[in-house]
Amino acid sequence: MRTDPPSLLSLAIDSALLHISSYSDLSFLPEHILEDLFLRTLRAGKLNEKILKLFIATGKEEILSLIGAFNIQCVLTPVLPTISVRDDEVDIVIAAIEPDLTSFLEEWRAVFSRFHLIIIKDPDIKGELKIPGGFNYDTYTKADIQQIIGPSNAATFSGYSCRYFGYLLSKKKYIISIDDDCIPAKDTKGIQVDAIAQHINNLLTPATPFFFNTLYDPFCKGADFVRGYPFSLRNGVSCALSCGLWLNLADLDAPTQALKPELRNTRYVDAVLTVPARAMMPMSGINIAFDRELVGPALLPSFKLAKEGKFRWETVEDVWTGMCVKVVCDHLGYGVKTGLPYVWRKERGNAIESLKKEWEGVKLMEEVVPFFQSMKLTPAAKTAEDCVIEIAAAVKEQLGRIDPVFTRAADSMVEWVQLWKTVKTRT
Amino acid sequence: MRTDPPSLLSLAIDSALLHISSYSDLSFLPEHILEDLFLRTLRAGKLNEKILKLFIATGKEEILSLIGAFNIQCVLTPVLPTISVRDDEVDIVIAAIEPDLTSFLEEWRAVFSRFHLIIIKDPDIKGELKIPGGFNYDTYTKADIQQIIGPSNAATFSGYSCRYFGYLLSKKKYIISIDDDCIPAKDTKGIQVDAIAQHINNLLTPATPFFFNTLYDPFCKGADFVRGYPFSLRNGVSCALSCGLWLNLADLDAPTQALKPELRNTRYVDAVLTVPARAMMPMSGINIAFDRELVGPALLPSFKLAKEGKFRWETVEDVWTGMCVKVVCDHLGYGVKTGLPYVWRKERGNAIESLKKEWEGVKLMEEVVPFFQSMKLTPAAKTAEDCVIEIAAAVKEQLGRIDPVFTRAADSMVEWVQLWKTVKTRT
Fold first, then answer.
1. Is B264 within 8 Å of B248 (Cβ atoms)?
2. Residue A259 sits at the chain B interface (C-beta within 8 Å)
3. What contacts A100, CB < 8 A, 6 or more positions away?
4. Which of B39, B273, B281 sits opposite A259 (nearest CB)?
5. Is B143 an 8 Å CB contact of chain A?
6. What is the pLDDT of residues A18-70, one digit of tens each?
7. Residues 293..332 of A with a Cβ closer than 8 Å to B: which?
8. Which stretch is the leader sequence (chains A, B) (predicted)?
9. Model's pTM, two decimal places?
10. What confidence tens digit (pLDDT) does each residue in B404-426 have?
């Protein structure tokens, strides 16, 4: 149609499209012209509530069937949503494992400085926090933690887990957390990635957990749903968690890292995808974002290994937490995305030294994964808090007899939910 | 350890590693030296059956626990598998929707010419097949189809479905099929992709459907399993189906294509991933490969729309077939991969013209997807043939009352399995 010289009819439809907002009745148009006008209106991005009602008012069957098949629904705003979030809806939570955050924050200045930071100092470390000027932040130390949760429980927030104290205190809708040994990554064109913008985009666009789109995120610019994707599922669901990835030093366990000390992740996979419902994945806490209002209480510090250390490969708390969140999302009908954004992870630590500590985590995963894979919540669990309490009960009952670490985790999940509720009531 | 000047002990271990294959006993070594030697042997890729047995024979607990945790098992060949397939284990099946295959085959010459081609001429088209010289191929026409399956059923193999006749006649382990409107794609560096090599690699390396690896295919060069991935699942399972993707004209349905006539897929996502168990996806028949011995009978022509045409967006037979295969793979414990390789899809047809035909397919998907998502096979189904028969019975019972197209599909699935068995017995 586009390559032929335009017909008079086509020019007339163009003109109608130009003035579409000034019409109050379209029912006089023949059906085939109406159909053409409708498709052109859609393509031009001009279909809003008023114009949709005009087309519906014609009562023409072909038009109604088009509207049904595209699953176009009456809304008060234009049909294409605009993606935006106010800067004050976001907290960036940083766990300070080392007291000097100068070089870390300088690397991230362009990306972080618009947002409010919550910086939690690992209660185990000594020395004053060093934070360069020009950031909007609050810091919390061991004393603050003890004041809120009592001195005996401060250890819950040691090491990587100190960030959870920030999750607890945040009042924002969105929380983003990036490890302090990561700097911004560059994409395949060498352009620095804005990890915050990508995370926010992941959280604001729908997730599609109920059918796998082979072309990855259909809400990505230039992408769409593949042939065969049911139209009824194309609205998607709210995305509650966005898991980013890592270039350079990948998030491997200590044995793998020890076995392949030269291995670096250099593959930049330009994709975001929804992890399908009921599929479990190993979430890493290195580079994540989540909707605190939807699943905040499920991002919890509860799975502490006896010999947990200050290297990621010595911990599995985030992997446990990720499976909690995934089960909660599957139950409540939210989505989890993984993929972009990448961060660049710098070298830290000697994996061979960590090998002995890590075996416990590696062995426990053999029990943890099947447990979460078979976990079914009851219809009574209607909030993230409810879900966590149900999961904790199942952990205690099914895993508690295997290892005391699970009983402690279950108790700590229940305590966390109580703490979450107390803090929310207080503020 | 690497940056310090080497200790005498370290040099001694280096020397032991150099001569590791000449030792017949290692049990005299202290445990910490043995552990170091074991890790260095692994890293050097020197761990073979004989050396593994040497280490096991020491009986040292730390070594046995390392072997257990890495899930290293005794095999007869070196521990790292080498990926290769003989050229005569592969058939490339081409459905000739247009009789002149000259430009198509010339584009693919470098990639296809090593392999045997099975070319099936769409029984609906007229004119002699045109095939350039230098290829090793067999062609089949309407007369051949009628001879094998009888004249009344030849319509089953019309249009895109004619390729299934090639699947039926192939005796090779691996089948690869690419639509005749596709040419080789280029990767982000501008290098032409060898789609056959990538498909074969996807089929020969394990799939990991039971836990999602966030760094995509762990068997890809430079990749591995992410922290938290259970070691017991790292062996993976056999990959039965490899679904490739499309650059330029993506595989969209007619409404989407009509609505976004300018949309082209330009995003080259450099990744292969296993579709998790129990997640369904819309397989496209444009660019696929499969292991015929594992799932051949499940790749079947059965879901024909009344107004099915000669454009992909006018069909859903492959989407249906893909869900059959996925259910079969989930039941029999095989994996399905999606992602690389891409092909470049050329323009063909006018989507707006196809809109009227496509509505039926779009509407039926709303019934088809939930059906396959909830499909559970019984333990009695032990082969792909058994599985297809069970699925056909469920289709008839659960979907048959909704639309006669489903009853026809169920009948045709049963006929296909009979045909498959007959042809296999005969040859």
1. yes
2. yes
3. A127, A129, A130
4. B39
5. no
6. 888 788 888 888 888 898 899 888 888 788 878 888 888 888 888 888 888 88
7. 312-313, 316, 319, 322
8. none
9. 0.82
10. 999 999 999 999 999 999 998 87
